[in-house]
């Protein structure tokens, strides 16, 4: 990694890559905080050197998670505010943009939770997949409204993120039933909603989320169980409006099977995709801090927020993709 990259940026990039920092909102917050530190600690001699240093730091963060759309959206928000022509001015630009982004991020989840809670009735049981702070915000808001909510939580292999969800729901006073992933269809008749988060939402309303979400959605639609996706607007993927596709990250096979067991099995090929894509026809509503939307209309909100395209301000000027 480039020597100009601050140690906190390096640490943050490593923790995002290893999933010690996980969850779209948490990743975005950590990235904005890291860029703020890069700016405040920079000893760049001139404005151009400062800009180059911030681009380098942003690239180090961006390259850790190709599908975590909240990450590039956070980087765009912080970097696009660099309008000054002096080092001190640019430093202040970054600090103000990072602070503003993090403040909006904090408010966004609470606002989203209030919107999502309106879809949950007293006595409802939800089924969750993976761990989503946005989805949990909906449950928390519903509980604060005095509603009794119960949950069927999928363990979500291979990293068992469902365990995190189960613990957090227990802290909220929500009765939890933890199930193996393959038992989801069996218990769908016992739930009122499937409630999941999203790592990215495409312009056509497709939802990119933890592997297994798509299969759960298909089964839920077959059983007539409504599917709600909780996703802050920072998870909208503006690049998909101009034809860009969402890359699906392939995780380390060691998350699935260790080398010794692999050898005992005859060294089969192991695939460990982190995400899958749920088509919009299987989603009933996408809940954001700006309200709830049918998946097919999410592009309207996307255009309002991002225009008709986007840029990559962390790229070097000669290779930058502009709207």
UniProtKB/TrEMBL annotation:
- Enzyme Commission number(s) of this protein: 5.3.1.29
Q: Which SUPFAM superfamilies match?
A: NagB/RpiA/CoA transferase-like (SSF100950)
Q: Which UniProt keywords apply?
A: Carbohydrate metabolism, Initiation factor, Isomerase, Protein biosynthesis
User: InterPro entries given for it?
Assistant: IF-2B-related, IF_2B-like_C, Initiation_fac_2B_a/b/d, M1Pi_N, NagB/RpiA_transferase-like, R15Pi
> Which catalysed reactions does the entry list for this protein?
alpha-D-ribose 1,5-bisphosphate = D-ribulose 1,5-bisphosphate
Binding of substrate occurs at 22-25, 65, 209-210, 235
Q: Name one GO biological process term.
A: L-methionine salvage from methylthioadenosine
What's the top EC group for this one? isomerase
Which positions are catalytic residues?
Answer: 130, 199
Q: Which domain of life is it from?
A: Archaea
Name the Gene Ontology molecular function terms of this record: ribose 1,5-bisphosphate isomerase activity; S-methyl-5-thioribose-1-phosphate isomerase activity; translation initiation factor activity
Protein's job? Catalyzes the isomerization of ribose 1,5-bisphosphate (R15P) to ribulose 1,5-bisphosphate (RuBP).
Mention any additional remark: Reaction proceeds via a cis-phosphoenolate intermediate.
HAMAP family, alphabetized: R15P_isomerase (MF_02230)
PANTHER family for this protein: METHYLTHIORIBOSE-1-PHOSPHATE ISOMERASE, RIBOSE 1,5-BISPHOSPHATE ISOMERASE
Family stated for the protein in its record = Belongs to the eIF-2B alpha/beta/delta subunits family. R15P isomerase subfamily.
Q: What is this protein called?
A: Ribose 1,5-bisphosphate isomerase
Give the organism, scientific name. Answer: Haloferax sulfurifontis ATCC BAA-897
């Amino acid at each position: 990694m480039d020597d100009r990259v601050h140690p906190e940026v390096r640490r943050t990039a490593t923790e995002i890559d290893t999933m010690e920092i996980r969850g779209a909102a948490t990743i975005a917050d950590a990235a904005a905080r890291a860029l703020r530190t890069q700016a405040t600690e920079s000893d760049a001699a001139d404005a151009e050197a400062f800009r180059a240093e911030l681009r380098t730091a942003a690239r180090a963060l961006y390259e850790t998670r190709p599908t975590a759309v909240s990450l590039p959206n956070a980087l765009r928000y912080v970097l696009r505010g660099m309008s000054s022509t002096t080092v001190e001015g640019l430093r202040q630009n970054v600090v103000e943009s990072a602070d503003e982004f993090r403040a909006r991020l904090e408010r966004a989840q609470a606002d989203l939770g209030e919107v999502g809670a309106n879809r949950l009735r007293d006595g409802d049981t939800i089924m969750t997949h993976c761990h989503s702070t946005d989805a949990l915000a909906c449950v928390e808001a519903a509980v604060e409204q005095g509603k009794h909510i119960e949950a069927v939580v999928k363990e979500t292999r291979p990293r068992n993120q469902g365990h995190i969800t189960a613990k957090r729901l227990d802290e909220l006073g929500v009765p939890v039933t933890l199930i193996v992933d393959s038992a989801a269809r069996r218990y769908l008749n016992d739930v009122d909603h499937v409630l999941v988060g999203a790592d990215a939402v495409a312009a056509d309303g497709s939802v990119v989320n933890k592997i297994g979400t798509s299969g759960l959605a298909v089964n839920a639609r077959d059983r007539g169980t409504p599917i709600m996706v909780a996703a802050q607007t920072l998870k909208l993927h503006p690049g998909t409006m101009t034809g860009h596709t969402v890359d699906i990250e392939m995780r380390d096979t060691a998350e699935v099977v260790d080398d010794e067991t692999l050898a005992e099995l005859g060294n089969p090929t192991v695939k460990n995709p982190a995400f899958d894509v749920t088509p919009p026809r299987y989603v009933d509503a996408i809940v954001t801090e700006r309200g709830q939307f049918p998946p097919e209309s999410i592009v309207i909100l996307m255009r309002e927020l991002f225009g008709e395209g986007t840029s990559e301000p962390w790229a070097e000027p000669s290779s930058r993709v502009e709207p």
